[in-house]
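name: query_chain
kind: protein
chains: 1
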Amino acid sequence: MASRSTEPPENDIVFFARLRRAGVGLRHAEFVMEQFTKEEQRDTKTNWWSVFQSEKNRLDTGMLDIFLGPRGRGKTTMASMLVGCECWRNSEPVYATAMELAADIRKSFGHATVEDRTDRRRRFERCSLLVIDEFHRADKTDWSERLMESLLDYRYRFKRDTIIIGNDSPEDFVNHCGSSVASRIKECGKIVVLDGEDFRLRGDTHE
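structure:
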């Protein structure tokens, strides 16, 4: 894992490149850039911002936090902002959907060398912050479930921060995530329900 630094990136282009390399989508990367470089654009009086600050303070604790709620409540935006915090201090976070993560590791078993397969998996295991979006859409195959369980177990053992995003209710998520993940959440994580105003209804297109 790259050494952390409290120094900001050399310039905006470097910061933006780090966001995109981490896997943050273009729309959300632009929003994060705006929030980090233009303080006057920050809507700091909202409950959403308060939750974001609380989550920001949990970075570096080995957390396993779950962002749940309907679409349009800012789950992806908040996770992207936390990825931005890591990029700002020269860490190496990763943002991926559950399906992208599984597909990336699975395809390495085709023509890749053993070293390449190991490197692909290590990227998800060892990054400073791993965000797994659309967890409710993850494959339900035995292989995918074992992969996710072993990945989260590795990150738990080495105190790597992890955020999972889904659209389930808290009850449904706990029922579907499996006993191992549920146990990890009780020990070092929490479920954050974002159910406030729909960003899209107020003209903000950020999820």
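note: The CA atoms of residues 55 and 82 lie 8 Å apart.
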